[in-house]
Amino acid sequence: MRTCRAAAGLLLLAACSRAPSPPAAGRAERPPDPRWARAHPGYVWQFPRDHAAHRAYRTEWWYLTGIVTAEDAPGRTFGYQLTIFRIGLRPERTALASAWGTDTVLLGHAAVTDVAGNEHRFADLLHREVPLLARFGAPGDPVLAWCRAPAGTDGTWSIVWNGSGFDVAAVDARTRLAFRLRTTASKPLVLHGDRGFSAKSRDAASASLYYSFTRLATEGTLSLDGRTFPVRGTSWMDKEFSTSSLGPDQVGWDWLALRLADGRDLMLYLLRRADGNADVARASLVSPEGAVRALAPGEWTLRATARWRVYPSRFRLDVPGEGIHVTVVPLVLDQENRGTLPRAPDYWEGAVHVEDGEGDVVGEGYVELTGYGRGNRPPV
Asked: Would you say residue 196 lies in a domain?
């Protein structure tokens, strides 16, 4: 087991050209290989083709989160996460004359938060993209990403385009979690930033191509400790691909995806430097009908009002021009994803409620907090 973990760690380090900790002051990082494609404005989107992999870019992820309620157990609410990353090892195919030669690895994260049990469980895996272990579907293939479950678990993880949403599945014997869910879009997808071009630095040298489904009706099953619950709820799907999505002076981000009870949705993030200050702020507001508008930094403020360990644990969000004055509250304080792979960064990823000034719940969503604590800079 120790040998397998060490090999996985070497593979992960080879896949990521940036170290997981922030660079020393004044030290320039090695730029990505120029043969990788870079995100630029004016990308011509084609769906459903763009749900599939974009192998010209170094990094890509499919990310689904949701809050679901058990139909046969009143009061049982769960948050879930499934993220599959595609990480390019080299810009061209390997010359090795073998089906087991690869230029790509698949990294997977899955989590379940049991609100009533005040408990959070996390599983991760890393596979080479080779037969029987993992693959990313070509355009036109409904299977967008697929892999074997973690070692010791019988099953698979997958994200499949079903024509109107995504079918997702994950299982892990070590943490005794599993889910199999079908999602259907309640709103059309939205492009963030400038028609999908999302600048991550002031000079736009670091950027991604980014879209979301902000509301996906969700149903299926979720299991903990062998007990299976039929569940229903709502999910959010993010897709980004890029070659450099963090600037060299940035250490992480605070990202929020919120669904308000009045039908509006909000995506917003702050990219932070090592001194804790944010140097880039981006936000999108989605109307009940699905129209998206980029919010200028001066239109909104986000302020942490409490902390849990190294992480912010509550946020005050104000968008005065839209009449939004709310507090974002975690459903469980400890929703930290602690990786099992060597040198894998830990991060907080959790289900939240949105409360108004009277303390009434007026929305729900997910928050992701990365780059907090030593050695936790995301390798992207």
From this structure: yes
Looking at the domain assignment, is residue 5 inside a domain? no
Look up the domain containing 227 and give its range: 47-369
Count how many domains the chain has. Answer: 1
Residue at 377 is within a domain: no
Does residue 87 surpass a pLDDT of 90?
A: yes
pLDDT single digits (tens) 245-294 = 787 889 999 999 999 999 999 999 999 998 989 999 999 999 999 999 99
Q: Are 378 and 344 in contact (CB under 8 A)?
A: no
CA geometry: angle at 268 spanning 267 and 270, to 5°? 155
Question: In sequence order, which residues have a C-beta less than 8 Å from that of residue 327 and are 6 or more positions away?
Answer: 305, 314, 315, 316, 317, 354, 355, 356
* Per-residue exposure over 98-107, b if at least 16 CB sit within 10 Å of its own CB, e if not: eeeebebbbb
Spatial neighbors of 76 by CB under 8 A, at least 6 apart, are 69, 70, 114, 115, 116, 229
- Whether the predicted pLDDT of 363 surpasses 50: yes
Tell me the pTM.
0.91
Beta bridge partners of 114: 78, 119
Task: Say which CATH number the domain at 171 has.
Answer: 2.40.370.10
On the 0-12 / 13-18 / 19+ scale of CB atoms within 10 A, 129 is buried
Q: What is the pLDDT of residues 176-218, one digit of tens each?
A: 999 999 999 999 999 999 999 999 988 778 899 999 999 999 9
Structure confidence at residue 96 (pLDDT) = 67
Model pLDDT, residue 26:
32
Asked if residue 178 is part of any domain, the answer here is yes
